[in-house]
Structure formats: C-alpha cells, structure tokens
Write a structure and sequence with these properties.
The chain is an alpha+beta fold. It has a single domain, classed as Hotdog Thioesterase (Thiol Ester Dehydrase, Chain A). About 30% of the residues lie in helices and about 35% in strands. It has six helices and eight strands. Strands 1-2-4-5-6-3 form a six-stranded antiparallel β-sheet. The two termini are about 25 Å apart.
Length: about 180
Amino acid sequence: MNLLKVLRRLHFLSDARLLELYPPFWLMRVKVIELSDDWRHVHLRLPLTMISKNMGNSMFGGYQASLSDPIAALACVRVFPGNDVWTRHHELDFVKVGNSDLDLRFDFDADLEQQIRAELAEKGRSTPSFEFAFYRQDGKLCTHVKSTVAIRPEGYIKGSTGAFRVPEQKLARPDGDK
C-alpha cells in the first residue's frame, strides 16, 4: 500500500505533522514552524546537515527546490477546493549562500486570492504566480522563489482542440482491453 495514502487516513495527525512525515520532507528533516489552518501562511525550517551540504558547506539548491516546489500548489488546494492544482513552473534565484538552516516563508496574498477567484469564476481556470523566499538564520534573504501553479477544474485534460472534462465511465484502451 502507498505510504502517502496511509498517512492521509490518519485523521488525528495535523497538517503540520503530515507535512513533516511526508517521506521526502522527513528525510530532509523539515520542521513546520507555523502552518495556518487555511494554508495562507506557511513557515518551514530546512536544516543544514551533513547530507544537505554541498562542497562549499552550504545548502544544496536541490533541497530548496524540493521543499519549495509543492508549497504554493498545496496552499491553492486548500484555498480553492474542488480543483486540480499542480506546479507548472518553478524557479529559484540563489541570492546569498545558504550557510545555515533556512526558513521558507510563504504568505498567500489576499489581492492575488481575489484575482484567482475572479479568473476561476470567469474562465474556470487560473495560472497564478507566487513569490516567496528562503531566509538564513541571520534573517537575510537567501533564495527568492517564484512558483507558477495551474488551477483547473477536477478532471481537466487539455487536448489539441482545447479542454474537456474526463467522462465518468472508463474509456476502452486502443488495444481493446478495458
């Protein structure tokens, strides 16, 4: 059985604890400092360890990318339930060396939320960009993150002729198997 499915069934665990137990984050020793119930504010700590250090004794950029990649999408899933959400584009700008534990700070801007709601009402989909960052323990900006997510109706598939919803019944495979 899939470990993630098992974890999701443990309703007595908070979102913060589930996030810490998510296997890649658990292996990276991620700690939730603060996580609002609605995911509009997220503060996570990514520790600098023997394993996360690169040859220059600073944080591997891949660790930062792995932690920051799903955050905006997870927040959108909570704020806009009933939609499929995924990261469409993710970029990191390494401003300063990550030579300490790093704090990821994400805040869901209220104006952006209203813009997304308007796009979902008008077009049925939205592709917003979020900007957030990693900060060193001395409080200095380390890495600027820009993450663009796709928010689409559940079952959305984009084909060559546009978008449509997945039908309820299973489609036969081309080889005749069902």
